């Protein structure tokens, strides 16, 4: 038969996909409905009632805690975007700002991000956090504006920026809040985070805390039903598949109660069926997806952490992985990691970062649980940092981090 590129492409394009809207199963998709989070949504509305009823009467601060995949980010985005449109319909100038504290881990980074999201222009250097915050408050005052700032993944900021920086943000209502235009929500997976606030803030937040419980299988089943109806054609799946996933992941069935996991498994099962040209998803496709999911659990965990890492932080991590594999050892020394890192930089045509910067990256990777780093006294050889990675397999991790490096380079160049 004649080899016909056009026909191959056309056949593929004309193939009926089982997906109606694959994107609606992606983690960043914001669904219109959040089954089993109605009460939390009501609670948020009651805490922020003043913003609509009597703007400027108070500055509210709320803490949201819950394990990974319990819907914290989606709940906040849903609440804040709806509140914004209600406020604007009432003629209020209202801004919702979502600060990602993994991406912005320093006080300056966070304050600058708030200013930028409000449309202010802020130089990279030259201004202090206090000066930028002053500019933010003046902007709000002059425009008679109100704002809700959501600090997502706040625990990263706490761990890396330290207590004083937390104090600056959480007590900003005293220093800057005379006008009562700032409202804040702190979101965290760390259920003990309340302990990092100063005593006054802690006792305040204790009254305004919303705890999201991990989902049970029957709750996950409702979520899966809803999301599957958005993502797939009706005849591409059936209830049994969803039940299998819900039972695997439900917190009452020894799963983690993580909606992200459940949705990822459904998406993977759909992808496998699509790749096989099966026309519909089978129980076997779901089983395969669960196996893949089990294998990549650790990688998925660090995926959240590494999403916003800089190119050189990733290159350093890649050096650690490569060296651990090459030496087939359980730990490696910082000095040899730096040599490997310089080698990698050379291969990629990158200028290596300084020792101090690398030390900073190591600290961050260790604090976020991607690596273990301990300083050891080596007798007359002085002190050294020993680095290990307690999960794996490293072969898969290397592939994964290499992909991240490639993607990062594509974005940067
Ligand atoms: N009640 C729900 N209904 C529908 N989808 C949900 C629900 N809860 C969570 N999800 C979905 O599960 C995924 C994870 O949710 P989300 O990112 O909000 O969780 P999270 O608690 O913020 O997790 P992380 O701590 O990892 O940021 C998203 O795709 C979200 O749309």
From TrEMBL:
One Pfam family of this chain: WHD_Cdc6
SUPFAM superfamilies attached to this UniProt entry: P-loop containing nucleoside triphosphate hydrolases, Winged helix' DNA-binding domain
Domain Cdc6 C-terminal: 317-401
Gene Ontology biological process terms from the UniProt entry: DNA replication
Domain of life: Archaea
Any GO MF annotation of the entry: ATP hydrolysis activity
InterPro entries, per the entry: AAA_22, Cdc6_C, Cdc6_lid, ORC1/CDC6, Orc1/Cdc6_arc, P-loop_NTPase, WH-like_DNA-bd_sf, WH_DNA-bd_sf
CDD domains for this protein: HLD_clamp_RarA
Binding site for ATP: 70-74, 215, 227
Keyword annotations of the record: ATP-binding, DNA replication, Nucleotide-binding
Gene3D superfamilies reported for this sequence: 1.10.8.60, P-loop containing nucleotide triphosphate hydrolases, Winged helix-like DNA-binding domain superfamily/Winged helix DNA-binding domain
Its job: Involved in regulation of DNA replication.
Family, similarity comment: Belongs to the CDC6/cdc18 family.
The protein, known as: ORC1-type DNA replication protein
The organism of origin for this protein: Desulfurococcus amylolyticus DSM 16532
Lineage, uppermost ranks: Archaea, Thermoproteota, Thermoprotei, Desulfurococcales, Desulfurococcaceae
């Amino acid at each position: 038969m004649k080899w016909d590129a056009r026909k191959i492409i056309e056949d593929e394009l004309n193939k009926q996909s089982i997906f109606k809207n694959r994107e609606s199963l992606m983690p960043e998709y914001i669904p219109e409905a959040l089954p089993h989070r109605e009460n939390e949504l009501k609670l948020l509305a009651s805490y922020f009632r003043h913003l609509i009823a009597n703007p400027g009467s108070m500055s509210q601060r709320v803490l949201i805690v819950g394990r990974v995949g319990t819907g914290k980010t989606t709940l906040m985005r849903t609440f804040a975007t709806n509140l914004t449109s209600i406020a604007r319909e009432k003629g209020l100038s209202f801004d919702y700002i979502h600060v990602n504290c993994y991406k912005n881990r320093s006080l300056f980074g966070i304050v600058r991000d708030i200013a930028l999201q409000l449309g202010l222009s802020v130089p990279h250097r030259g201004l202090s956090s206090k000066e930028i915050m002053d500019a933010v408050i003046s902007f709000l005052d002059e425009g008679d504006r109100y704002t809700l700032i959501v600090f997502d993944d706040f625990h990263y900021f706490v761990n890396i920026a330290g207590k004083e920086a937390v104090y600056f943000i959480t007590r900003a209502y005293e220093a800057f809040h005379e006008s009562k235009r700032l409202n804040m929500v702190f979101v965290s997976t760390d259920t003990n985070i309340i302990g990092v606030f100063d005593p006054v803030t802690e006792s305040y937040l204790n009254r305004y805390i919303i705890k999201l419980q991990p989902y049970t299988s029957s709750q996950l089943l409702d979520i899966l039903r809803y999301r599957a109806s958005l993502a797939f054609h009706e005849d591409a799946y059936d209830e049994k598949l969803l039940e299998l996933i819900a039972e695997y992941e439900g917190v009452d069935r020894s799963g983690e109660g993580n909606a992200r996991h459940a949705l990822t498994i459904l998406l993977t099962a759909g992808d496998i069926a699509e790749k096989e040209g099966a026309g519909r998803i089978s129980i076997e496709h779901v089983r395969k997806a669960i196996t893949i999911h089990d294998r990549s659990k650790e990688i998925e965990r660090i995926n959240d952490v590494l999403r916003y890492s800089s190119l050189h932080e990733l290159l350093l991590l890649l050096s650690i992985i490569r060296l651990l594999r090459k030496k087939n050892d359980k730990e490696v020394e910082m000095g040899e990691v730096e040599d490997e890192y310089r080698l990698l930089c050379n291969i990629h045509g990158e200028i290596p970062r300084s020792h101090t910067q690398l030390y900073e990256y190591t600290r961050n990777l260790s604090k976020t649980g991607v690596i273990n780093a301990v300083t050891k006294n080596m007798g007359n050889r002085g002190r050294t940092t020993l680095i290990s990675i307690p999960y794996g397999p490293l072969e898969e991790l290397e592939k994964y981090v290499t992909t991240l490096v490639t993607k990062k380079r594509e974005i940067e160049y």
